[in-house]
Each structure stands twice: as C-alpha cells, then as structure tokens.
Amino acid sequence: MILIIDDDIAVRASLALLLKTHKYSVREAAGPAEALLVMDKTVPDLVLLDLNFSMGTTGEEGLELLAVLRARFPDVPVILITGWGSIALAVRGMKLGAGDFIHKPWDNEHLLASIKTLLDLRGPRPGRRTRQQLDAQFHFQHIIGEDPRILQILDTIGRVAPTEASVLITGESGTGKELIAEAIHQNSLRSSKPFVKVNLGGISTSLFESEMFGHIRGAFTDARFDRAGRFETAHKGTIFLDEIGDLDAGSQVKLLRVLQDRTYEVLGSSRTKTVDVRVVCATNKDLADMVARGAFREDLLYRINLITLHLPPLRERPKDIPLLVNFFIGNLREIYNRPSLSVSAAAMRWLQHLPLPGNIRQLKNLVERTILVSASEELRVEDFMAQLERSPTSPAGPFQTLEAMEVEMIKRALEFHKHKIARAAKALGITRSALYRRLDKYQIPYDASED
C-alpha cells in the first residue's frame, strides 16, 4: 500500500488514479495528523509526502513529519514531492532519510520508476553469497576479486542493477570504476540497450551542451551538421558519467536539469526532448568535501547517489593481486603465443607488497611491460623490479606512454584473433563495448561485421 500525504485534493486524486492504474493499493491523507492515524493502523510500503501543507510554504511542517516517520517507521521509504522553489528543502529532506524527491509537475514514468526502485530495494536481503554463487546468478566475468569488500559490492550490484536507482561509484584512479558501471548495465533490464560512457573531465565548458545534448546545423560557427548528444545516444540504456567531480558549476546546473526532469534542449533548438536513461556516475574525488567547499552542488549530489559503491584500493586487498596477475598472464599467453608464461612464487609475494598507487591499471601495465621486455618464461622479482623502476615515459622503455602500449596490445590481439572483435576483447579482458570505444578513441580501423 502507498500512502499519499498532500493537502491538495486534486494532487491526491491525480496520484491515486495513476497508482491504481498501475495496480498499486492506495491510501490518502490530507495532513500530518491524519497520516499518522493511518500509519498507526496499517504501515504502508511507501509514502509520497508533499512538503507544504495548510500552514504555509516554508516546508517545515513536511520536514517535521518526515523526521517523525523516519523515527517511527525507519523501514518505510519516503519520496518527497516538491516545487522548484523547494529544492533546498528537498535536499534537507534527503539528509533526514528521504529516498528520493520528485518536483512538480511530475513526470508519471519517472515517478513510477522511482517508486518501483525504492520498493525493490526494500526487499529482503539474501544472505552473504560466495563468489561462485554470485557468478552463477550474474554477469561478473570481467571483475576479478574475492576480497570480502569486493563480494559485498558485487552483491549490492546484483540487488540494484535491475532497479532504476542512480549509482555513484567512488574510489581511487585505476580501481575499476568503469568495469563496475558496465556490470551494473549488463545485469540490468537495459542490458540490450546502449551503454554510453562520458568522461566529463575531458569535456570543456564551451562544448558541454553540444556533447551532452547535441546540436543542430548552424547552432554555432563549426556546426555544419546536426549531431546527436550523449543523452540521446543513451536513450533507453545507461549513461556512465565518469569523473563527475571535474564538472564546473555552470555545467552542473545544466546536468541537474536533465537528471531532474529527464528533459533537455538540443543546442540551437527551442524544442524540448525527453530522455529515458539510467544514470551511473563515478569520481575519485570526495564530493561531500566539495559540497562543503561550495565546489559541487548539494542537490546534484543527492540526485546521483541513491546508491553509493566505494571501491577499495588494491593495496587494501593484497590477496586479490595474484588473481589479477594470473588473469592478465592468462590473456597475454594467448596474445603473445607464450603458453609457458608464469610468475614465480617470490615475485607474486613481492607484487602483493607493492603500494600500487595506480591500483589495477598500474598492476596491469607493470605485468604487460614486464612480459614485453623479459625473454624468460618465468617472471622473477628482478624482472618486475626493472620495469617498476623505469619511468613510463623513458625513451629506453618499449613504449613511451601507457596509451601507446594499449594501442599495441589491441592491434596484436586483433591480428592474433583475425580481427574477431568478441575474441580479441575476451583475450584483452575487457568487454566488446569497451574495445569498440578504444578502437574509436585510437582510430584503429576495424570491421564490425567480423564480430
């Protein structure tokens, strides 16, 4: 049963009709006193709570009721319904424990998706599952690790992926945030639709609207053709907003609007478009600290972090390092046709004690570089040590940059697998979509029909 608390009878009637049409049981209350009477008799599954009642438009009455509901009924999710002028109040409500906030006039589909998400997340939690149990139920083949914190993250992904919940992934650079985002998409109901990755740190302020929302011909000097934006490309799928902590204040406002309304305007056009998209964000920055310093909008933070997943650095899960090294070695044996490649026990122990500030990305780079340089089939401590001490930009190295190494690895994998995209991606330990992005990024020619 869903309880609607609003002093406007027209709003209650409209919401009740919408919910009943979608097979939800509904109760109504015109104010705090009536709502508590209803809940004392029957505890609802979810509450839709307006912030303003007859006493005025300050929203304080609604917040006071929310505090009472969270204290007396902590397991009942609450969605706040508010006007644009009350967004700051809605943020205060999120701090008090509200699950989401919807602004008036609401979009029916967005409201229904929010209700379904919170009801799904409220369901019973399964007991702690092993890696084998998780792999049997979900698609996690590209995520390597058995550390308890990784298993807890995978378990959470299994619960939230089928919902429409916004997810914020935090963690140091190189911890695998993109892989986690892809896992959320692959295990969601949108898995057959696009997964669009956007590195917000690489988009200048002047190009933000064009990149994200598209433009029409003539919108600015160099706009010779119409162009679809990232949100339009991701329609019905998932958009992954990486490095969201790098977004400037003006762009944060523009992003907030599309996340709030699910609407946007193409640059150069006055026509409003609607988008249906799942939003997953990632950052290596402390957004709460940025909010405190005024560098990140608090309302945007609460819009993107219904679920937060924090990836631990690799140095805090050293038992996963041998698993990762063996995974990398297994892929590289095939690519380089060196079936006897292995790592000595002493070298594996040495690797487990490295600080690895670059995390998984640095470990993979170290293993690949060592294999390329060493002629030995068993890699020893001194082999790894020599490559760790060598500067990645040293001209004496086999490649000048990590990007150059990645290009070479991709080309070799494609050549070895006769340009079969799926096989090359599997050998490289990445998904097909990730390989396609790298092919486009590095302008490596490929034939999609060979997949």
TrEMBL record:
The modification 4-aspartylphosphate is found at D50. Residues 1-119 form the Response regulatory domain. Keywords: ATP-binding, DNA-binding, Nucleotide-binding, Phosphoprotein, Transcription, Transcription regulation. One of its GO terms (molecular function) is ATP binding. SUPFAM superfamilies: CheY-like, Homeodomain-like, P-loop containing nucleoside triphosphate hydrolases. One of its GO terms (biological process) is phosphorelay signal transduction system. It comes from the Bacteria. Residues 143-372 form the Sigma-54 factor interaction domain. PANTHER family: C4-DICARBOXYLATE TRANSPORT TRANSCRIPTIONAL REGULATORY PROTEIN DCTD, TRANSCRIPTIONAL REGULATORY PROTEIN. This is DNA-binding NtrC family response regulator. It comes from Dinghuibacter silviterrae. The lineage of its organism: Bacteria, Pseudomonadati, Bacteroidota, Chitinophagia, Chitinophagales.
